[in-house]
Amino acid sequence: MRILMVVLLLGAIMGCQPSDAQDAPARPGKADPASLPEGYLVEDIPGSEAQRVVKRDEEGKIAEEGMLYDGLKMGAWIAYHEGGVFPAKITTYAEGVQNGTYLEFNTRGHLTLRATYKNNKLDGPWALYSFGRPEKEAHYKNGELDGVYLEYNRKTGNLQKEAHYKNGVQHGTYRFYSEEGEVMLEVEYIDGVKQEG
């Protein structure tokens, strides 16, 4: 019965609008709702060029939400796990481009991935987590590994592998550690080439 009342109320409201309202182009600076993927709802924020965008799942819970400014993604966009309780991903945008922190969470709300983006490319610290502990850590520059790359033993949490990168290729000392933390292997790389000796 409630659904019927909502449908009738929406029909009455829509019937009162001028017939050319659907054909009107989006205002300058605002996103045209037709340009968004199916299922996204756009709400204007009064007194602002910003718009709130929401996508709901079949149960009506929020599946994704974020802001548009001048028709471009801006700020944090949050995608939720099924059921809408915990975020699955938080992506940060500036003027429609992925910039800043990117986070992924498991279905229990625990952090599983942390990364930093600049102009849609990995740029800065990156880390993969398991049960709150780092599994892998790295640093990126302009989408390529650049700096120290670390892997940890899942069982002990001790450092297992250490490698150095420069512009996406191995450059520097590579070390592999035992579970007790002793160096088991040490190799030197220069511009991606393993050095003999």
Provide the gyration radius in Å. Answer: 24 Å
For the biggest sheet, the summary is: 16 strands, antiparallel
Order of helices and strands: HEEEEEEEEEEEEEEEE
What is the overall silhouette? elongated
Instruction: Indicate how many domains the architecture comprises.
Output: 1
The chain-level structural class is mainly beta
Query: Distance between termini?
Result: 81 Å
Poorly predicted runs are 1-28
Q: Level of helix content?
A: under 10%
Average of pLDDT: 85
The CATH topology comes to Outer Surface Protein A, domain 3
* Text of the CATH class: Alpha Beta
Strand content: over 45%
Number of DSSP-assigned strands: 16
The CATH architecture would be Alpha-Beta Complex
Number of helices: 1
